[in-house]
Specification:
Two copies of one chain form a homodimer. Chain A is of the alpha+beta class. Chain A has helices at residues 17-26, 59-67, 81-91, 99-106, 108-117, 131-141, 168-174, 232-248, 285-288, 293-302, 334-338, 374-383, and strands at 9-13, 32-37, 50-53, 71-74, 125-128, 145-149, 159-162, 182-186, 192-200, 206-208, 212-217, 220-226, 253-261, 269-275, 315-321, 327-328, 344-347, 352-353, 358-365.
C-alpha cells in the first residue's frame, strides 16, 4: 500500500464519539484523520484535521473523504457497503474492514447464517416475515423471544423482547421489520454478558483484547469491567469463540464481539452481536491496555503491526447517559468527578443532551495487583455518573 | 472563577508539541483549547479548536486568545510577562502560572537569588557582566564553569561550558549575554541528572510526579527513565527539594524542575533549571502515570482537583531528534517502531526537520512488577529512534 509521503491520512465515515476517539489515537502516530458526518461540528471535528459534511451513504461525501485519504474506514454501521465499494473502485483507496463484511453484519439473518455455517455457537433463531411466522417461532423457541430487525439495528436499537404471541404484530411494527423481515432469537437465560474486542491486521495477524464483562439495562450498555467476573475456562472459551468469529470476517480492523455466558449449558458462550468497528465495550482499553482499541484500529487498517493487547490493570468503565429533556449540553460537576482518584473522563462534546444518549464515559483503573477486585471496582465505577450533570 | 456555560476554554500561548499534548489531554475532559503561535498550522493546531497566528509576545494576539478563554496559560518561556499581565487586567481572564513567576524564571539571576533566599540548594553562581567578571568567577569557582545567559535561554539554549579564562569573551558572545549579563555556575560533577514534575492546584494543593532520571547529550535531553536509577533516600530528597521549589513559585500549574544528583556531597540534590510549564522530562507520564503532566496542568490551571500522580509501571522515554539537513519532515519507519511491543509513538507533526529539533518522542512502559529493570528499559528505549527516519 502506498501512503502519502508526509504521513498517512485515514478517512472515517462517521464522526461521532468513535470517530473522535479514533482521531485522538491517530494524532500521536502522525496519522491525519478526515471524517464525514451529516452534523456540522460533529464530536470528532475538533480533534481531526477535517470534516466533510454529508450523509453516511452519500456518494459524493464518501468520495471526498476517500480522495483525501490513504485508507478509508467507518465507525458506524449506517455506512453503506455499496457506496464504500464503489468509492474504493473509483478512487483506488482501500476500505477496511471490507465492505462485504459490513454488508454481512448489517443483515442479521445473513450474519447469523454465515456464523452458523462456520460452526460458531449462536442462540437459536428463526427468520420471521410476518406475525404468523413470529408466533410460530415463539412457539418453537419458547416465549419470550428476542425480535431483531434484520437491518438498521445497532446498539440495541431494533431489538424488542416479545412476551407472547399476542404481541407479535406490534413488535414487528416496533422493530420496523417492513419488507426486510426480522429474526426471532431464543431468549438466552445468560449469567452475564461478555465482550471481546478482536482485531485483524495485515498478513492475517489477529489479536484479541482481554475478555470484558458488560452490563446492559434496557438494551443499552451502562458499564463494563475487565477481567469479567467469571472463571478462567469461560474467559478462554470466550476468547476462542471471538477468534473464530474474526476468522469468518474479511478485511482489517477492530471488531466488537458481544457474547452471552450461560454456565452449565452445552455451549457456555454464544455470540450475540458483532460490530465491524471499535465498540463501547472496549473504551476501557484507552487506560487499561498497552494499546487502545482505537490505536489498534488505526494500526490495523493502515497495515501497521498490531499493538500489545495486555491488560495493564483491572479496569471498569461507565457510560454518561443523557437524562431529562432535550437541551443544549452543559457539562457540570466535573470537579467532583475528577476528585475521584484515578477516574478518567472522556467527554464526547455532543452539543445536545437527549435521554439515554451517550454523552461520555468514565474509566476507573483498579489496583494492578488485585485481579479479584473487579466486583468492588465495578460498584465504585457505577456511582461515578452521580457526580456529573448536564446542567 | 466563572467558566463558560458549555464547558471551559483554555487559552495557551504557544502551539508547539507542549501545546499539542495539552490539547490532547484537554479534549477528553470537555475543555476546548485555543492556542497562539507565530507559525500557521503549528503542531498543536490539528488537535485544538482554534489557533490565533501571532508572536508569543504580541499584545493583540494574546488578547485575542484571552478573550476566547476562561483561563490563560503558556507553554513556552518566550511568552511575555508584561503582555500576559496587561491582558489579564484588560480581559479579566486569569493567567496561570502567575506572570510574575514567569518573570522570575526568565531571568536566571533573579530566579537563583530567589531560590537561594528560600534556602533551596543550588550550584554556586556568580553574576558576570563582562569577560573580566567571568574570568574572576572561573578562578573563584574553579574551571570549567557553566555560563548561562540571564534571559532567553531554555532547553539548554543559552548555556555554554567555558573551559578556561581564554574562552571568556567568546563564550559571553555565544550565549548572547548582551546588556543583560549572564551567570557563571560551578560545574557540578553530578552522578546523574534528575527531574521532578511538580504541580500546584487550587487552594495550595500540591503534587509531585515520581522522580525521573534524565539523560542529556550536548545540552539536549535525549531520554528519561522513571524510577531514576538511584537510591530511595536520594529520590526522597529530590522530591523534597522539588516541593520546596514549588513553594517559592506563585500561581497554579505544572513546573518542570531539573536537578543534579551528586552523591557524597553535602547537598546531594541541587536545582539546575525550572520551567513554568509541562516539561520534556515528564512526557513519559502520558503512559506511565494515572494522570499525565498535561492533564494535570489542565486540571491545575482550571482550578480542578489534581489527579493521582502514581507511577503505573517503570517507564522510559526517548526523543526523536531531527538529523541531517533542513527539509520537509516525512516520518518513515513507523512500522518497525510499532512492531516493538509496548512502544508508544508521539509524533509532533512539525512540517520541517532540523538538526536536533524535537520531532517526537517514544515511550516504553516496562513490567509493572520489575521496579529494578530501569537500566535495561532505558537501554531498550535508547535504541528505538534507530527504527525511525525522516525520509
Amino acid at each position: 500500500m502506498h501512503l502519502s509521503d508526509d504521513g498517512p491520512t485515514l478517512g472515517v465515515v462517521g464522526g461521532g464519539q468513535l470517530g473522535r476517539m479514533l482521531g485522538e489515537a491517530a494524532g500521536p502516530l502522525g496519522v491525519r484523520v478526515v471524517v464525514s458526518d451529516p452534523t456540522p461540528n460533529c464530536p470528532a471535528s475538533p480533534v481531526v484535521d477535517e470534516q466533510v459534511v454529508g450523509a453516511f451513504d452519500d456518494h459524493e461525501t464518501v468520495r471526498a473523504v476517500a480522495e483525501r485519504s490513504d485508507v478509508l474506514t467507518y465507525e458506524i454501521e449506517l455506512a453503506d457497503p455499496d457506496t464504500l465499494a464503489a468509492v474504493a473502485e473509483e478512487t483506488g483507496t482501500p476500505v477496511h474492514p471490507h465492505p462485504e463484511t459490513l454488508r454481512t453484519i448489517q443483515d442479521k439473518l445473513v450474519q447469523n447464517d454465515a456464523f452458523a455455517e462456520a460452526g460458531i455457537p449462536l442462540p437459536e433463531y428463526h427468520r420471521v416475515d410476518d406475525a404468523a411466522d413470529l408466533r410460530a417461532a415463539g412457539d418453537a423457541l419458547g416465549w419470550p423471544v428476542m425480535l431483531k430487525a434484520r437491518t438498521g439495528g445497532y446498539d440495541g436499537r431494533g431489538n424488542v423482547p416479545v412476551e407472547g404471541p399476542e404481541e407479535a404484530a406490534a413488535a414487528l411494527a416496533e422493530v420496523g421489520a417492513g419488507d426486510d423481515g426480522a429474526l426471532a432469537e431464543r431468549m438466552v437465560p445468560f449469567d452475564r454478558e461478555l465482550a471481546v474486542i478482536g482485531c485483524r491486521g495485515a498478513d492475517g495477524q489477529t489479536a484479541a483484547f482481554p475478555v470484558t464483562e458488560t452490563v446492559h439495562e434496557a438494551e443499552i450498555l451502562r458499564a463494563t469491567v475487565s477481567p469479567a467476573r467469571t472463571d478462567r475456562a469461560t474467559r478462554e472459551r470466550a476468547r476462542e469463540v471471538a477468534l473464530d468469529v474474526l476468522d469468518t470476517l474479511e478485511g482489517r480492523g477492530v471488531f466488537g464481539i458481544e457474547l452471552f455466558e450461560q454456565s452449565g449449558a452445552e455451549d457456555t458462550i454464544l455470540v450475540n452481536e458483532v460490530a465491524p468497528r471499535p465498540h463501547n465495550s472496549g473504551h476501557w482499553t484507552i487506560e487499561g491496555c498497552s494499546t487502545s482499541q482505537f490505536g489498534q484500529h488505526v494500526r490495523a487498517v493502515l497495515g501497521w503491526p498490531l499493538g500489545a493487547t495486555d491488560r495493564r490493570c483491572p479496569t471498569a468503565s461507565v457510560n454518561l447517559l443523557g437524562k431529562g429533556e432535550v437541551r443544549p449540553a452543559r457539562l457540570a460537576g466535573v470537579e467532583d468527578l475528577l476528585a475521584v482518584q484515578g477516574a478518567a473522563l472522556h467527554w464526547y462534546g455532543k452539543r445536545e443532551v437527549r435521554p439515554l444518549r451517550k454523552m461520555g464515559h468514565v474509566t476507573l483503573p483498579g489496583d494492578a495487583t488485585d485481579i479479584h477486585g473487579a466486583d468492588a471496582l465495578l460498584s465504585r465505577a457505577r456511582h461515578l455518573p452521580d457526580q456529573v450533570t448536564f446542567a
